[in-house]
Each structure stands twice: as structure tokens, then as C-alpha cells.
Specification:
Elements lengths: L15 H9 L7 E5 L8 E6 L20 E7 L14 H14 L10 E10 L5 E11 L6 E7 L4 E4 L20 E3 L18 E5 L5 E3 L4 E8 L5 E6 L5 E7 L1 E2 L8 E2 L4 E4 L10 E8 L2 E3 L17 H16 L8
Antiparallel strand pairs: 1-2, 3-4, 4-5, 5-6, 6-7, 8-9, 9-17, 10-16, 11-12, 11-15, 12-13, 13-17, 14-16, 17-18
This protein binds zinc ion.
Length: 336
């Protein structure tokens, strides 16, 4: 069960660098903190609060703060089905990301209704007029019990969301494309064809599964291909916010109504296992690429369990302290 490299190229947007800049830039950029009204239009701010922050270069507080581009901050009260204090008017994509952070940092059985959230985020204008959001820090205050804060940190080795001490990493939020993973052939960019004796890279991971087994989006993103795609057979490709594109090949059929441009959530049904295209039996060929280069898609599914390494602890605590100031500057909403 193998698949040749696809010659199709899709443009891949990269926001990874932006995230690094957003986090690392905090070390020297004085900032404002925006309190955003919880309305559909993020541009309508309820009021802006300036927060003076010490500069890393000089310990003297800066009198002239510069508003970092795209900065967003907000507060809301969680409820079912949507936030009660936000009157259901928050940008859907933004709510998805709150879901991602809570889903990866909190236990599944945690009681979330009535919990209050404060957060700071990067929220640049997207090409389609919407907003690409990226949470940098989030405070979760449950109806009963102790509040907790989580911080994104990107260092040399560290990458992801961590608790306040940096000693516990949240999971990545990536989900398995199948309920049960049985790997039959790994990613292998240097695979040699046994008979032809020429390189025939295996650009994804094959998972054996019976015909008709549901296939899920491994992370939220935008569907950028649905349909027959050469050796891939029936193929779905999803572009994720970090610029990674995942592919799901040899499907027997697609989820009803699925089309290019659809926004999907992590673990949303996208199709069913099959054996279409160049395939010798029912299986899912699961692939991932970034910057036009395929990498081992299985690495997306491994939860990071490592804490922030000792060598990066100081940088983490420094970034955390500045994010804390911005969280503290935001008036929390109260549940009724
Ligand atoms: Zn394969």
C-alpha cells in the first residue's frame, strides 16, 4: 500500500513565525491591552486600556507605550451552547481556539458552564475580512475551585501551552484521524522500491481499517481539497492555522456536503475509509506537509509531555510575567 508523491501544489500560509514574534517580541515591546467588546465585529472596541510594561532594555517603565499590531484581549463567561456573557456574538473561529486551549489543558470531565475566561490573543485581519486569532494566554476560573492560567511559549525546544509553573505541558489539541490506529506502513521519505530499485518515498502513514470506518479531521482548519486526486483516490486536504496541511487518501466516500472552503473542527467527520486510487486494500493514507515539504504526520499526534526545559525556564517566566500583567489589566466578567 503505497502512494507516489503528489505533484499537486497548494499554497501554504504560514503563521508560525508570527506566533514566535508575538511571544518573543513581548520581551521588549511595551504594549497596550485592548479590552474588546464581545460583539460580532471585533473592530468595535468597548474601550482601550493602556498598560505600562517594563522594558527588557531599560527597567524604567515606558511612558509612551506602543500598541502591538493585532493585539486582542477579552473576557467571557462559558455556558451551553455558547458563552452566556458574550451573547453568542463572538467570532466562531475565536471560540474554536478557546475550545482548543481548554480541551488540551483541562481534564475532559471538568465542569465548564459558568466558568469565566480572560485571555490575550493575537488577532490579525485575515485575507477574507475575518480575523485570524491566536491565543497567547488564558485564565480559566471555574464556578468552584481554583483559577488556572495557561501560556503559550515558543522557545528553542519548548513549544506549546504550559501551566503557570512551566512544568506541565498541555496536549497539542491534534486528534487521531481514526478511532483506532493500526499502522501498517510508516512515513519513509527514502523508501526504495523493492523491484524497480529506485526511490519511491512514502509521504504519509498508512493505517489499516475496515472499509467504511469514519475518518476525522485531525485538527481544525479549512478544507482545501475534496474529490478524486490521482493515486490518492478520493482525497481530502485540510489547511490548519499553523500552515500545516493534512491529507486523507483512498476514502470510499466523503462526509455529506463537505466542500472546499468549509471550516472544520478537530475530530469532525470528513469521510470514510476506502481503497480508491493506488491502493491494494482498505486503509487510510494520512499525510502532513508544511512549506511544500511532507513530514511524518504521526508526529502531530504525539502529545508533548515535556515541561519547559530548565535552560528556557527564565525566558518562560519572563514571558509569563508580561502576559500576566495583561490578563490582570482586563476586568473579569461576572456570571449572573
Ligand atoms: Zn500510504
Amino acid at each position: 500500500m503505497h502512494d507516489p508523491d503528489s505533484s499537486r501544489r497548494t499554497p501554504v500560509a504560514l503563521d508560525v513565525a508570527l506566533a514566535c514574534v508575538a511571544v518573543l517580541g513581548l520581551a521588549w515591546v511595551p504594549f497596550f491591552c485592548w479590552t474588546v467588546s464581545l460583539e460580532k465585529d471585533w473592530a468595535r472596541t468597548a474601550g482601550a486600556r493602556a498598560v505600562s510594561a517594563p522594558s527588557a532594555i531599560s527597567t524604567t517603565p515606558q511612558s509612551e507605550a506602543v500598541t502591538p499590531e493585532h493585539e486582542q484581549a477579552g473576557a467571557l463567561v462559558l455556558g451551553s451552547p455558547g458563552p452566556v456573557a458574550a451573547q453568542g456574538a463572538l467570532d466562531d473561529v475565536f471560540l474554536d481556539e478557546i475550545d482548543d486551549v481548554l480541551g488540551s489543558c483541562l481534564p475532559d470531565d471538568d465542569q465548564r458552564d459558568g466558568a469565566t475566561i480572560r485571555l490575550v490573543a493575537d488577532g490579525k485581519e485575515a485575507a477574507d475580512g475575518g480575523r485570524d486569532t491566536h491565543i497567547l494566554a488564558l485564565e480559566y476560573r471555574p464556578p468552584a475551585g481554583e483559577p488556572a492560567r495557561f501560556y503559550e511559549f515558543v522557545g528553542l525546544d519548548a513549544r506549546g501551552f504550559y501551566d503557570a509553573t512551566g512544568t506541565r505541558a498541555c496536549s497539542t489539541g491534534w486528534r487521531s484521524p481514526l478511532a483506532k490506529l493500526r499502522r501498517t506502513s510508516p512515513f519513509n521519505p527514502r523508501r526504495m522500491h523493492p523491484i524497480l530499485r529506485r526511490p519511491m518515498p512514502h509521504q504519509g502513514t498508512d493505517f489499516g481499517a475496515p472499509q467504511g470506518t469514519p475518518v476525522y479531521a485531525s485538527y481544525r482548519g479549512t478544507v482545501n481539497f475534496v474529490g478524486p486526486h490521482g493515486a490518492h483516490g478520493n482525497w481530502v486536504a485540510i489547511l490548519h492555522p499553523d500552515g500545516t496541511e493534512t491529507g486523507y487518501a483512498h476514502l470510499s466516500r466523503f462526509a455529506p456536503g463537505l466542500q472546499v472552503g468549509d471550516q472544520v473542527r478537530a475530530h469532525q467527520l470528513i469521510g470514510y475509509v476506502g481503497s480508491t486510487g493506488r491502493s491494494t486494500g482498505p486503509h487510510l493514507h494520512f499525510s502532513a506537509r508544511a512549506k511544500e515539504t511532507y513530514f511524518d504526520a504521526e508526529t502531530l499526534l504525539r502529545p508533548p509531555v515535556a515541561p519547559v526545559p530548565e535552560t528556557e525556564r527564565y525566558a518562560f517566566l519572563k514571558a509569563k510575567a508580561e502576559l500576566d500583567q495583561r490578563l490582570d489589566a482586563m476586568p473579569p466578567l461576572m456570571a449572573h
